[in-house]
UniProtKB/TrEMBL annotation:
Residue ranges of every copy of the ABM domain listed in the record: 12-83
UniProt-recorded name of the protein: Antibiotic biosynthesis monooxygenase
PANTHER family (UniProt xref): ABM DOMAIN-CONTAINING PROTEIN, BLL5343 PROTEIN
UniProt keyword terms in alphabetical order: Monooxygenase, Oxidoreductase
Protein origin, superkingdom: Bacteria
Keyword Ligase: no
InterPro entries: ABM_dom (IPR007138), Dimeric_a/b-barrel (IPR011008), Jasmonate_Hydroxylase-like (IPR052936)
Gene3D superfamilies: 3.30.70.100
Keyword Oxidoreductase: yes
GO MF annotation terms: monooxygenase activity
Pfam families: ABM
Length: 108
């Protein structure tokens, strides 16, 4: 989400996508990069943070409203990626939508 000065002020929403990968990498990185680029162009998108090891990944996207999240979920290209994820890239995943009421930031 950038540095401290560019962070949005709560409240805002976080979509936490935690996933366990399959062994298939075919097209995954390209699609993941495309989805981040496309999400960043959507109204209400505030930022994204992501971490992954060999199998487990967590991506958190930040949005200014539940409506923006719904619109992203229903975006045609995102739906294609979701289907591909279910059939090829993920063993399992969980999506959690949370309202961020407050945050504390530290930067040394």
């Amino acid at each position: 989400m950038g540095d401290h000065t560019s962070r949005p002020q709560p409240p805002y929403y976080a979509v936490i996508f935690s996933s366990q990968r399959t062994d298939s990498d075919q097209g995954y990185v390209r699609m993941a990069n495309k989805m981040v680029e496309l999400a960043s162009q959507q109204n209400g998108f505030l930022g994204v943070e992501s971490a992954r090891d060999d199998q487990l990944g967590i991506t958190i996207s930040y949005w200014n409203s539940l409506e923006a999240i719904k619109n992203w979920k229903e975006h045609a290209a995102h739906q294609v990626a979701q289907q591909k994820g279910k059939t090829e890239w993920y063993k399992s995943y969980t999506i959690r939508v949370c309202k961020v009421e407050r945050e504390q930031f530290f930067n040394s």
